[in-house]
Amino acid sequence: MTRPMTRPVTRPGRLSQRMVWERPVTAPDGLGGETTTYLPIGHVWADLRPGTARDVALGEGRVGEVTHEIFVRREVGLAAGDRLRLGARVFLCVICHDPDASGRFTRAEAVEEV
């Protein structure tokens, strides 16, 4: 039995954006709470694709929210809560999963911090 041909979610040649991968680290702030900082883990090659933009209510005001799809190689170990940086642009990974169960890539749904 042959498997049906499926279109790949991305190709290795499309991983053309070199991004800084950051992982969150929490520490006590001395006042009973905690502070989250992000430490660079290394660089990853990624396929960055624009998603949607929308206006979101935040307290009394409104802010813009821009989403993206980011594909990296599966071996990277990218997880929800991690950040990717491209120059001054920062992308918070909200969901990370294997998009086609092939074990080759991780797809991150990310929100650009604007």
TrEMBL record:
Superkingdom as given in the UniProt entry: Bacteria
Gene3D superfamilies referenced in this protein's UniProt entry, alphabetically: Bacteriophage SPP1 head-tail adaptor protein
Listed InterPro entries: Phage_SPP1_head-tail_adaptor, SSP1_head-tail_sf
Pfam families assigned to the protein according to its UniProt record, in alphabetical order: Phage_HCP
Protein's name in the database: Head-tail adaptor
Organism name: Afifella marina DSM 2698
